[in-house]
């Protein structure tokens, strides 16, 4: 008897990519997809996908895992728990952060996060480098060397006392990113407005979590976007603006893209499904919904959906940043903290795709192919992981999520696999669930059980790719032909 041609065949599912939806068998040999067709020869193992959707595994390009955060504490998850929760939610690639804090040497930071991820991750991963201390060593030596090692995106914060950098060092980082071919990602909010608002609110006794939302005044987002975009256009450096939360912020991005600037942007489920009202709970309970920027209003949800439809926003990430609702996390300062003492962030690696599938596919908002694009293909392209990740294609890694479009699941705290101990979406019933998940051809989630081995995820080295390439259009100030011959770049 001859050996089966393939290791695994997923049979008769409805396959969806950004460009097509069709019924097909998918054959996998080793770690990659090797054939897509009808009535393919048998595999050593077969999965019957009739009635199911066969989608590329999700790519979550913004998640804080086992990271020393802006609050000065480590997030609740390990790489094992965080990536396991991602897999349960249909995500098979994650880009998390290697976070430099002030005084830290960037190469050591990368080494430390590599060690943590190599030990625990169950899905493939890459890192964005958080730069909080742009010393000459970091800018001139470390960033170029580390980008060459495959860390081709840099993140900066424009707010948060521990991590923020001001305009002048930000210009230096933009230049370092440009010269090394990296994408510059940013948490862009106006620090002065926020800290001024915080002081006024606290001094007047407005201390509950709901006032966190007030302290991040809406304009702090649009102002910082404008300033960042201005600086990036001065340097001609492509940027990614993280977690857009307001209609005004989305408009700033639309205008910048309309001028041909290379500005990419994401939003997150918390800005599409939660509002500031969610923080209005008795006592400290609202802390469970506290993130930055804060959830806003239903009218912002509509504006963001519109921006997603128009392509102003290209990706939806989780911004997973889990803290337990106890003395190790949200209540670390006290059982009755003021809002400034509460760590910012929500768990979301596991719920990102089911929330979006329910809204986009089951309820029909923007549809299946746009769901695939925003959650897998577009982030893979922007962060230069495509075509290996983010699509179903011959030669791609066999990272696949098989969805039962009819399965209804009510989210509960107890059902989550991360270590936050709660989900901000508890009680919501969603239609559509990833029932079988594969990472490089291995089944890692099946029948509600994890089969993944800690440390089986691999580091994905990335060079910058198209998204990180400058436009080549210099503004007058930077252009020797128009600035009396001065050479600034
Ligand atoms: N805000 C961030 O900027 N990062 C992590 C979580 C959060 O709420
Ligand atoms: Zn952020
Ligand atoms: Zn974040």
From TrEMBL:
The keyword Transit peptide does not apply. Its EC number is 3.5.2.2. Carbamylation allows a single lysine to coordinate two divalent metal cations. GO terms for cellular component: cytosol. The modification N6-carboxylysine is found at residue 155. Its cofactor is Zn(2+). The keyword Zinc-finger does not apply. Residues 53-443 form the Amidohydrolase-related domain. It comes from the Bacteria. Belongs to the metallo-dependent hydrolases superfamily. Hydantoinase/dihydropyrimidinase family. This is Dihydropyrimidinase.
């Amino acid at each position: 008897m001859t050996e089966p041609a393939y290791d695994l065949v997923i049979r008769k599912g409805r396959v969806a990519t950004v460009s097509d939806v069709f019924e097909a068998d998918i054959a996998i040999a080793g770690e990659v997809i090797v054939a897509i067709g009808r009535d393919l020869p048998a595999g050593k193992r077969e999965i019957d996908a009739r009635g199911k959707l066969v989608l590329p595994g999700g790519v979550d390009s913004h998640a804080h895992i086992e990271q020393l955060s802006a609050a000065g504490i480590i997030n609740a998850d390990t790489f094992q728990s965080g990536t396991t929760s991602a897999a349960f939610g249909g995500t098979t690639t994650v880009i998390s952060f290697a976070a430099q804090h002030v005084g830290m040497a960037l190469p050591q930071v990368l080494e430390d996060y590599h060690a943590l991820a190599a030990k625990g991750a169950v899905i493939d991963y890459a890192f964005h480098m958080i730069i909080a201390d742009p010393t000459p060593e970091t800018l001139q030596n470390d960033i170029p060397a580390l980008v060459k090692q495959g860390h081709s995106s840099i993140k900066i914060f424009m707010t948060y006392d521990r991590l923020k950098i001001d305009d002048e060092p930000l210009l230096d980082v933009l230049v370092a990113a440009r010269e090394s071919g990296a994408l510059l990602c940013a948490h862009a909010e106006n620090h002065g407005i926020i800290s001024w608002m915080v002081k006024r609110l606290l001094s007047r006794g407005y201390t509950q979590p709901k006032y966190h939302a007030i302290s991040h005044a809406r304009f702090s987002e649009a102002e910082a976007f404008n300033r960042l975009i201005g600086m990036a256009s001065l340097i001609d450096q492509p940027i990614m603006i993280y977690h857009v939360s307001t209609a005004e912020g989305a408009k700033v991005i639309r205008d910048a893209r309309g001028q041909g600037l290379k500005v990419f942007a994401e939003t997150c489920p918390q800005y599409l499904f939660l509002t500031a009202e969610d923080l209005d709970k008795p006592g400290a309970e609202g802390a469970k919904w506290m993130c930055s920027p804060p959830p806003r209003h239903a009218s912002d949800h509509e504006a963001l959906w519109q921006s997603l439809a128009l392509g102003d926003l290209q990706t939806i990430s989780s911004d997973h940043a889990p803290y337990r609702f106890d003395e190790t996390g949200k209540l670390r300062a006290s059982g009755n903290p003021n809002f400034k003492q509460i760590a910012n962030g929500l768990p979301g690696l596991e719920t990102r795709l089911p929330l979006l599938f329910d809204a986009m596919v089951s309820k029909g908002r923007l549809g299946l192919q746009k769901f695939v694009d925003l959650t897998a293909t577009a982030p893979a392209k922007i962060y230069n992981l495509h075509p290996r990740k983010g699509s179903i294609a011959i030669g791609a890694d066999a990272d696949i999520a098989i969805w039962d479009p009819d399965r209804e699941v009510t989210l509960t705290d107890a059902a989550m696999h991360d270590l936050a101990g709660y989900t901000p979406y508890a009680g919501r019933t969603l239609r559509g669930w990833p029932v079988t998940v594969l990472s490089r051809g291995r089944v890692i989630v099946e029948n509600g059980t994890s089969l993944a081995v800690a440390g089986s995820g691999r580091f994905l080295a990335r060079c910058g790719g198209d998204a990180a390439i400058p436009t080549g259009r210099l503004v007058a100030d930077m252009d020797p032909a128009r600035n009396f011959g001065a050479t600034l770049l």
